[in-house]
Amino acid sequence: MLGFFKSKLKKISKSLSTIKFTLGDKIRRILSGKVDESAYEHLEQLFFEADLGAELSMDLVERVRRKIQKNKEISSEEILKDIKEELLTYFPENKKNLEVDKKPYVVMIVGVNGSGKTTSIAKLASKLKKEGKKVLLVAGDTFRAAAIEQLGKWAEKIGIDCIKSKTGSDPAAVVHDSLTAAKARDVDVVLIDTAGRLHTKTDLMHELEKIKRVSSKLIDNAPHETLLVLDATTGQNALDQAKTFHQFTPISSIILTKLDGSAKGGIVVAIQKQLQIPVSWVGLGESEEDFIPFDAKEFLDALLSTNN
């Protein structure tokens, strides 16, 4: 995926320099030799290790097998192209990020602790401000004092308002006060941080439902979008998280974080295939600029690129 990052960032994370081969290079090496059952098993393992999932890995291997059976002279580049085209069919058309057609436009952000949720909210807020939007942050993760403090520091750094309360406060009450303030202050976009205690699923479900109920009473159809933040390095666990949160509250789209230190990324495809939830943004680092709109074709080109 090195080319993907080079095309998007001026400064590349040092961790990327340790990636010697892309997934595309590894596939080409397998297919350039004798393609027997051992090669197909190796190919399946490669797909699985890239976090494409067991079912999709087997499907892709069978697809490659059929291609080779039909044409013994087919090149590895042709097979890679065919794989890209197949994977692209799992992605919806690129979603236009945050179509702010209401005021205030309310966005709820969910995700487990440690996924990069608070930082992603700050990066999104920064981008919206640069677009001329008046943004309000809501520290709805009242379970963790650190989350409240971190969001407040980001708001101060960016130069936007943040409404917060003391640790242990009712998140729905904080949201209620925030949306009331948003209407009074003529805010364009409200970004609501939420708790990520996925291990207490029942409590989390009730909390998210209450926030949504309070929001819709104050502003029609709020929240207008719900974004899920996923850590790309967690692999199949990210898929489980997506399923759980999607069950609790319909997810509009996904923010994928921490792609700067991982050569995998295939989990994005697995999520598309199983849940059809579009990816809207990708986080590639720690700075505000390391946050870019997701493009499916570009992503797959990078995932299956060859450096040699």
Overall SS class: alpha/beta
Query: pLDDT under 50 segments (min length 5)?
Result: 8-21
The portion of residues forming beta strands comes to 5-15%
What's the alpha carbon Rg, rounded to whole Å? Answer: 21 Å
Give the tally of structural domains: 2
Number of strands: 8
What average pLDDT do the residues reach? 85
**Count of individual helical segments:** 12
Write the layout of secondary structure elements.
Elements: H1 2-8, H2 23-32, H3 37-49, H4 54-70, H5 76-88, E1 105-110, H6 117-130, E2 135-138, H7 145-158, E3 161-163, H8 171-184, E4 189-193, H9 201-218, E5 225-231, H10 236-248, E6 253-257, H11 267-275, E7 279-283, E8 291-293, H12 296-303
Helix pairs in contact: 1-12, 2-3, 3-4, 6-7, 8-9, 10-11
Walkthrough of the structure:
It is a single chain. It is built from 12 helices and 8 strands. The protein is an alpha/beta fold. The chain folds into 2 domains: 2-7 and 14-88, Up-down Bundle (Four Helix Bundle (Hemerythrin (Met), subunit A)); 105-295, Rossmann fold, CATH 3.40.50. Helix 1 (2-8) packs across helix 12 (296-303), helix 3 (37-49) runs antiparallel to helix 4 and helix 6 runs parallel beside helix 7. It starts with a helix and ends in a 5-residue tail after the last helix. Residues 8-21 have low confidence and may be disordered.
